[in-house]
Amino acid sequence: MSKHKLVVNGIEHELDVRPDMPLLWVLRDKLKLTGTKYGCGIAQCGACTVHVGGAATRSCVLPVSAVTGPVTTIEGLAQKGDLQPLQAAWIEHDVPQCGYCQSGQIMAAAALLAGNPRPTDKDIDQAMAGNYCRCGTYIRIREAIHAAADNAVGGTRG
Amino acid sequence: MSIAKLSRRSLLKVSAIAGGGFLLEATLPARVLAAEDGLLVESKDLNAYVTIDANGQITIYSSVPEMGQGVKTTLPMIIAEEMGARWEDVRVINAPLDAAKYGMQGAGGSTSIPRNYGTMRRMGASAREMLISAAALVMEVERQELEARDSRVVRRSGESRTFGELATLAAKQPIPDPETLSYKDPRAYTIIGKSVSGVDNLAIATGVGQFGIDVDVPGMKYASYARCPRPGGRALRFNESAIRKLPGITDAFILAPDERAGKTTMAFLDGLAVLHGGVAIVGDDTWSVMDAKNKLEVEWDESEASTDDWAEKVAWGERVAREGSGQVRLDSPAVDAAFADPNNRVIESFYQFPYVAHICMEPMNCTADYRKGRAGAPDSLEIWFGSQFPGQVKDIAKNLFGLEPDQVKVNPLRMGGGFGRRAIHDFATEAMAISHRTGAPVKLTWTRTDDIHNDFFRVGGFENMKGAIDPAGRLAALEQHYIGFQHEGKPVIGSGLRGNELTMVALPNARVKQTMKEIDTACGPWRAPGSNSNAFVEQSFIHELAHLAGRDHLEFLLELLGERRWIKEGDVNALNTGRAIDVIKLAAEKAGWGRTLPSGTGLGLAFYFCHAAHIAEVAEVSVDAKRNFRVNKVTVAVDVGPIINVSGALSQVQGSVIDGLSTMALQQITMKRGAIQQDNFHDYSVMRIGATPVVEVHFIESDNPSTGLGEPALPPLAPAVTNAIFAATGERIRSMPLREAGFTLV
After folding, report:
1. With contact defined as beta carbons under 8 Å apart, do B512 and B329 qualify?
2. Is A134 in Cβ contact with B686 (below 8 Å)?
C-alpha cells in the first residue's frame, strides 16, 4: 500500500492503495465512480476508457502509480450539469442498446472531437477502433458523433 | 394505502397510494406459454403498474428485464398510448421482483412483445376509463362527452382536467370490466409507431451506475472464483496460506460441487446452474481478488472432467455425413427415386458451424448477502444482479440453503447484454455460496476469461445437404442430415431442427435426418437458438441448388415457397409463405436485385422465419484478390406486424446485422481435452466500427399482431453474406467463421 494523489473530475483525492492497482479499479471500487466499466482487463475492448491529461486512456491497464495527469470520467464529462453535445446526441440518436460499453464510447468520441471538431467517417473509424460494441450500435455511434460535431461547431455537415 | 373493492368479474385491482396517486394492477390467469425456441416459459399473473401523482407525473413500472432489447421503453409506450398520456409526462422505473404481483418476470425467445401486448393495452385502457369516470364526476357531465389525450381528460366544449388533478378521485372509481374496454383507433396513435429514445439513455450517457456490476452494498466484500480449466473437475487443494497472505485478501476456501443447485422450476434451465467445485477468494477490492486468482496453485481432481476435443468432433461429423445413417424425422417416398433418376443433377454439400460464446460486454457478476437469522429468526438472502429470469435464483436458494421464496429478496438490474447467457445462473449460485460461507455481502465478478471459459455456448455442429434438380431446373428432392450434439441423451439447447424450417414444413419431396452425439461442453440459448446456424446451411444450399439449375436465386427461392399459404392458419409461430414472399420481393427490389455490379462485388439473398418474424436480407459484398471482404450494404425487409417503437425496432435490426456479421466472420470456440482454447478478446474478437455496413431496413406493417425483434434479424445475415461472396467470386463458403476459411472482414 502507498499514498497516491489523484485528481478526478476536478476533485483531488489522496488514496492509500496498492501501486499496481489499475486506475479502473481505483475509480470503481475506491472512489465509487462506476460509470467506467470493466470489459476485458487487457485494453482490447475500450469499455474502461477515461481521459488522462485529456487523452483517451484504457484505465484497466494503467497502474494508479503511473497516472500522471488529471483524470476525467464519464461522470465528469457534463460541465456544471450541462450535458456535452455528445451526450445529448447519444440520447437524441438513441444510441445505446444494452448501454454497457457506451461510457467508454462517449469518452473515446469526446477525445476525438477535442482534437478534430469535424471528423470524417474515416477519422471516426480510426479513433473509435479501440471500442467494442457487442450489441452493434456502431451505425448510431457514427451518426451521433457527426451530430455532436455539427451542434458544437454550428451549421450542418457539408 | 387502501385497496378499493374488486369487481368480481374484473381481473384488475386498484389501490390508492400514499400521496393521493393511483395504482393499477392487472392480474391474468395462470398460463403456460411455449416460447418458440423450445423454452417453456411459465407465465402467470402478468402485471404492470401505473401511478400518477398530483403533479401529473405518470410512473409506469417495467416488469420485464432489460438487456438492450428495448422492452423497458417499448412496453410502457403501449400503456401510455391507451391511457392518453403524453410521453413527456411518463417516467419508467424497474418493478421489483414479485411473483405474487407480476408472475413470471423474464425475457427470452423474443416473446416480450407478444406475451405482454394485450396486458399493457388493457392496463392503459382501464386507467383511461377510470380517469374519465373521475372527470365526469368533477365536471358533472356524461362520460360520453369526454376523452383522454395529452395527459388530460377533455370535454367537447374544450374544458379539461389534468391527469394529476384527477388522480386521487380516479383511484376510487370502479374498475372497468376488461370485457367492456374499448381501444384506441390506431390512426389516432401519438406514441405507438413513433421513435422514442430509450428511457435509461440519460443515465447511460452520464455514467450513473445501474448495472449489476455497479452495485455497492454496505460492508460488501469482493470475490473471485476459480473453476477447473477442464469442465467437471473439482478442487482438492490449493496454496491457501500463500493466497491468504496477499494484500487485500480476507478469505479463501474451496467450495465442493453441488448438483442440487441446478434443479429449477423452468424445464429448459434444469441441471444447468449446478455449483462447480472451485476455489473462492474474498477481499477488499476487485483487483486484489483477481490478482490473487492469478497466483492460485490448485490441485484438481479431473477424474470426471470433460475430454471434449473439437477437432475430434469435426472428424466424427464428417464421418457420419459420409456414412449417411441417421434417425429419420421426415420422409417422402419420392426422394430415393429422384436421386436415382439419371436425368436429374445431384449435389451434396457438407456444412459446418462452430461453438461461439456470448461475450456480453458486462461479464457475469452477482452480489449476494446471506444473513444468518439471529435469536431464532430465519435466515435471509438478498441478491442484486442482471438476469433474464431473475426469479430463478429463488429455486437455487431453496436447493442450496432450504430458503423459502419469502426469505429471498431479489433486486433485478439492467443487464449489460444477455443474448441468452443471463438465462442461466451458475454465477449467481457461486455468489450465494461464497456469501453464505464467508458471512458477508459479496460481489462476485468474473474476469473476461472466466466469462469465456465458463460460458453456455452456442452449440456447434454439421449438416450434410443433398439435392436433386430435374431437367426443367426444378427441385426434385432434398435431403437434410443434421449432425449435432446431446447431453445425457437430450439434445442440447440450439442443436437439431426446431420443426418450422422450410425443409420440415414447406418443401415437397424432402427427407430430414438427425444424428446426435454426447458432448460435455456446456451449451445454452444464444440469440436465435438453432436458427442462427441452420439459416446459414439452408439458405446457402438453396442458392447452391439455384446455381446448379442455372436459375436466378430470387426466382428459384420464390418458386420453392410456392402458393401463398399459412402452414397453420392463425398461428403466428407458423410460417406464412405469403408473408415470406412479400419480404423477399421487397428486400430484392430495394437492394436492386439483378443490377450490374462491378467485378468482385456481388449480391446475396437469404430468407428466414423464426420467432414469428418473416425476414429477408440482401447483402452487397466486395471481395479483393487477397480475399479481404467488405459488406457494403445490407438491405433488410421485416414483417413483425405493426412497429411500436420505430427507433427501437430499427436498432434491433441494425444490431442483429452487425452481431451476425461479427460472429460469422470472426468467432469460434474450440476445446481440447475439455479445456476452452480461447481466453480473452485478443483471441476471440468482436467486429470493430470500421467494418460496419450501411443497413437499410424496410418494415412491412402487416395486420398481424406485433411480435419481437431481439433475435430474428440475425439468422439470415450469414447466408446473405456468403451467397454474395459466391456471386462476387464463385467461391462457396460452407464453414464459419470466415476467418478460418481465409476471408478477412475489412
Report:
1. yes
2. yes
Backbone dihedral angles phi then psi of residue B499, each to the nearest 5 degrees? 115, -10
Interface of A with B in 48-67 (CB under 8 A): none
Q: B574: burial class by Cβ within 10 Å (0-12, 13-18, 19+)? A: middle
Give the bridge partners for B486, in sequence order.
Answer: B491, B518
**CB neighbour class for B100 (10 Å; exposed up to 12, middle 13-18, buried from 19):** exposed
Contact B425, B522 (CB under 8 A): no
φ, ψ at A80 (rounded to 5°): 50, 40
Closest CA to B138 of B176, B165, B174: B165
HSE, CB side, 13 Å, CA atoms: give it for residue B373. Answer: 10
Distance separating alpha carbons of residues B72 and B227, to the nearest angstrom: 35
- B728's CB contacts (< 8 A; 6+ apart) are B597, B600, B601, B602, B621, B622, B623
Q: Which amino acid is at B670?
A: T
Task: Give the residue among B317, B452, B195 at the shortest CA–CA distance from B735.
Answer: B317
Interface contact flag, A135 B214, Cβ < 8 Å: no
Is B65 in contact with B102 (CB distance < 8 Å)?
no
A 107-126 residues with CB < 8 A to B: 124-126
Closest CB to B682: pick one of A22, A39, A44.
A44
Secondary structure (DSSP) of B191-205: STTB----TTHHHHH
Instruction: Provide the sign of the torsion angle of the four alpha carbons B312, B318, B324, B328, taken in this order.
Output: positive
Cell reading at B507: 418443401
pLDDT, one tens digit per residue, over A95-141 is 999 999 999 999 999 999 999 999 999 999 999 999 999 999 999 99
Q: Which residues contact B166 (CB under 8 A, 6 or more apart)?
A: B131, B134, B135, B138, B153
Residue ranges of chain B whose pLDDT lies below 70 = 1-48
pTM of the model: 0.93
B360 contact residues in A (CB cutoff 8 A): 98, 100, 134
CB neighbours of residue B267 within 10 Å? 12
Q: What is the number of other CB atoms lying within 10 angstroms of the CB of residue B536?
A: 30
B578-637 pLDDT tens trace: 999 999 999 999 999 999 999 999 999 999 999 999 999 999 999 999 999 999 999 999
B391 near B104, Cβ under 8 Å?
Answer: yes
Q: Is ipTM over 0.95? A: yes
- The per-residue pLDDT for A79 is 77
